[in-house]
Amino acid sequence: MDLGAIDPALLLASLMVAATPLLLAAVGELVVERAGVLNLGVEGMMITGAICGFIVAVQSGSPLLGMAAAAAGGAGLSMLFALLTQFALANQVASGLSLTLFGLGLSALMGQGYQGVKPPPFPRLDVALLSDLPLVGPVLLSHDLMVYFGLIICAVVWAMLKYTRAGLILRAVGENHDAAHALGYNVVGIRILAIMFGGACAGLGGAYISLIRVPQWTEGMTAGIGWIALALVVFASWKPGRVLLGAYLFGGVSVIQLNLQAAGVAIPVEYLAMSPYLITILVLVIMSADRSRAPGSLGRPFHAPS
Amino acid sequence: MLKLEKRPEPSTLWTYLTPLVAVLATMLAGGALFAFLGKDPVLAIRTIFWDPLFSEFAYYYRPQLLVKGAPLVLIAIGLSLGFRAGIWNIGAEGQYIIGALAGAGVGLAFYPHEAWYIFPLMVLAGALGGCAWAMIPAILKVRFGTNEILVSLMLVYVAERLLASMSLGLLKNPEGMGFPGSRNLQNYPSAHNAELIAGSGMHWGVVAAFIAVIAAHVLLNRHILGYHIRLAGQAPRAARFAGVTPARLILVCLGTAGALAGMAGLFEVSGPAGQVSIDFNVGYGFTAIIVAFLGRLHPVGILLAGALMALTYIGGEIAQSQLGLPSAAIQLFQGMLLFFLLAIDVLTNYRLVRTAREVA
Questions:
Q1: Which end of chain B is more exposed for a tag (fewer CB within 10 A), N or C?
Q2: Tens digit of pLDDT for each residue in B123-161?
Q3: Residue B293: C-alpha distances to residues A250, B80, B302 (Å)
């Protein structure tokens, strides 16, 4: 065992990388849930985004185009969920599950022939001189662009929910859809937009894994990160700031367990690999004491009274 | 313009029709998918749904229907109880793995001793293992109000890691020349879940599945607990006034589902699979969710849905070897089925009405 080999700057830097897919998916799901919709299909949308982004990036040679395709893929799949829950008024839990099962199958089918292919490298931030600074450079200023994009999107969602009229309407729809409907807001329309945003974010999160973090394609490679993102939203009490905190916490756990594996700690690899899931459960238990912050209409179907 | 109008009562006709229409729609959409993949759609659908039952080699495939259907039905029956009461156990895959590990562990502990009581003990251990694993989300939900969906699912990933660890470590075959995986239980008569009638596919898991169907039917229709389960799902507030304890219901539903899933795992590991190995689980726990919904959460419906889903597994394998259809296509096909089912199900509770444009 050689814990001295773990470089703290590198650890912090890789923590941010590990946290980014979680952050993207969780911020998207946060918006969906604030609109009163529980979409359990995050895992399915992530993996679909992962393969869509991968295919387009490999074919076009442009990773940015790949990211755009991932967002489109995730959003496209989420529209199936919107169709089921907003028009066919299907049970949201069952619909979300079917989205995940469907997405896993779809991605496996699309990904045939892409295993072992290397995607084009992703552009990194490179600020003249500053990126070469010790500690600050590797930790803050030389990541791939998506790390910053994730932070920006989290900040934008926070500001939108807190300060804008659109955010207020979104929250109204989520807290009490009957009241929002009575005020003349288009509940279904707003929810569909929220679902689409959630799908796009999940798709980006998935593509981050397949294009940047790993980077290659394997079936089922999201390995439960979509589900952890769902737990993260509960952990964050539906607040964007806390999503950021939570994502970095989980990112930290997964990076530390990987580093411990590499350092050859006397705990078997399989047990270390369990830790992110066990910690998710632990966090859920701690947070479940306070259910009061959940949006009032979360998971309830809305059928406009006529 | 078309509009949805809530029916005063759920339509009986559509309750029965929905699964059939969903299967037909899936065949059509699946056919389009196969055509897109460059396969003959009619041939592909026929290979999946017809050949396992009626082709020249059907005598070989028919027993497989029981082998693949039994775990699906066994797990789905357990899940359906919870789903009816609004308790979402989606971690059956994990309970299945733990049941297999616990049961196989007991069997292997007796090796090479031969006795009649070993197999029943293994079944018991499998049921208890699955039940214990399901009790984790149940107790957390009862005690802390933790979301059972996320906890039960997280435990699937934990169980998979545990399975890997066990097949590489504790349960590894000491005479396996270093290969991962346990001793093969098929070579250990006291622990082998052998076919009851040779060549029929009928093993103890199939018997258990049939018993579970009957028991669930009796429970839901003739027993106060079944009534409580149905009541809690349809009218939670009324259920509380009727004296239903939600906590008890959660423990019972999750515990039963876990025990049945654990038993399914044990029957699989001691019979068709034969040994504990890293890739022992093949997703029955997740497919069983589709089976439960396709069967309308009704025991007899689940039996039929389980048979149909087993058919797509076998047909999928045939299509894979004969037509070169990728295995993922079958997975997608099964996912599609649940999609169509949920979409068409709207017609059970709502009807489409044509509305004339009102004059303002």
A1: C
A2: 999 999 999 999 999 999 888 888 888 899 889 989 988
A3: 34, 8, 8
Distant-in-sequence contacts of B63-66, Cβ < 8 A, 24+ apart: B63/B195, B63/B199, B63/B200, B63/B201, B63/B202, B64/B201, B64/B310, B64/B314, B65/B201, B65/B307, B65/B310, B65/B311, B65/B314, B66/B200, B66/B201, B66/B202, B66/B203, B66/B206, B66/B310
**Residue A35 · residue A161 · CB < 8 Å:** no
* Domains in chain B with CATH codes: 38-325 (1.10.3470)
Q: Collapse the DSSP code of B353 into the 3-class scheme (helix H, G, I; strand E, B; otherwise coil) and give the result.
A: strand
Judge whether A277 and B152 are in contact, CB under 8 Å. no
Domain ranges of chain A: 3-123+142-287
pLDDT band at A203 (very low <50, low <70, confident <90, very high): very high
pLDDT, tens only, B50-81: 888 887 777 778 888 888 899 999 999 999 98
Q: How many residues does chain B have?
A: 360
When scoring B287, B332, B355 by the number of chain A Cβ atoms within 10 A, the one with the most, hence best to mutate, is: B332
Q: How many CB pairs under 8 A join A and B?
A: 139
Which residues of chain B does A98 touch, with a Cβ-Cβ cutoff of 8 Å? 290, 335, 338-339, 342
* CB-CB neighbors (< 8 A) of B333 in chain A: 105
Rounded-to-integer distance, Cα B190 and Cα B117, Å:
8
CA distance B77 to B260: 8
The model's pTM? 0.86
**Top-level CATH class of A3-123+142-287?**
mainly alpha
Angle at A115 between CA A109 and CA A121, to 5 degrees: 120
- Does residue B324 sit in helix, strand or coil? coil
